[in-house]
Amino acid sequence: MIRVTKTFLPPLEEYHDRLRNVWENGWITNEGPLVVELEEALRRYLGVRHVLLVSNGTLALQLAVRALDVQGEVITTPFSYVATTSSLVWEHCQPVFVDIDPQTFCLDPGLVEAAITPATRAIVATHVFGTPCGIEEIEQIARRYNLRVIYDAAHSFGVRYQGSSVLQYGDVSTLSFHATKLFHTGEGGAVVTNDDELARRLAYMRNFGHQDAHSFAGLGINAKNSEIHAALGLCVLSHLPQLINRRHRLVALYDQLLAPAGLQRPQLPAGTEMVYSYYPILFQSETQLLRVTQALNSAEIFPRRYFYPSLTTLPYVLPAYCPVASDVASRVLCLPLYHDLAETDVARIVKIVLSSLV
Ligand SMILES: *Cc1c(COP(=O)(O)O)cnc(C)c1O
Prior knowledge:
alpha/beta; Aspartate Aminotransferase, domain 2; Aspartate Aminotransferase, domain 1; 2 domains; seven-stranded mixed β-sheet; three-stranded antiparallel β-sheet; 10 helices; 16 strands; globular; binds pyridoxal-5'-phosphate
């Protein structure tokens, strides 16, 4: 059976070696040496100033909203994973959906200004499938209207834009290290920022608000991550260059074999150095997508409809009219992409796709 993704697990001996240290010193959580080591390794790998490990990518978003003291209306994208919206609602913010760009599938910056009201406080945009969203325009609008900017960068681990990490932009970028993500710690995530004061707030907020053992800097929650997770992350990180190369090769093969179909793929802005977390394709119609999916399923191949339906249909948001997002969400399918997917399987998948298009 071939699924849309498969978690990379490092050789068990490598994990075992890391765990032996944990067993020896008996330090399991609360900013242990492996969490500190992984944060340092990620800062270096990603080339950013502050990386704080947290329990998952959803809490990363919630902490970002809290640390920036965002309340009220938040402009956001209807085409992302549900956590991008649910984290806002959970923090009592009002998501205001702005439609997506039909080429990049990311929030359309040209539509943002019209959605701003006196209650607007922030923009939460996703670099969907790793494609950098209209960063310059978003940041220009944010400066003009004094809005905070949070990027949900759960798909953007390792992606570079204009010569530096895509995580450099905005007030905070959030990462997910869930087992289905390219880089993972089983469960986990991180908040990334260049702002020292914000990093200080995020640090105490993820740890109950503790300043030290007996004093509190402010309100906090438990969003820490453990040595067990960090150990896994350190093992995965050492294999990452090969994992990324492998994905580049598979994507190039998909592109080459699928070319005759002329199916649309997300357009990367100039200056993007991509790391492929997903392989999305846009069909001409939902009917075509369903037909292809059925044919693949019959061959025990299970692509995923990331992200269907549009988040405007969630039962806890106000109605919003985002026709591009609704349309794209109904026609995008992510084909299997993972480290040990074989070239022969890519060829088999493409053959089924091509033969069920008409
Ligand atoms: C995976 C994902 C999240 C949630 O991360 P978790 O670590 O699973 O909580 C948030 N946003 C996007 C875009 C994601 O893909």
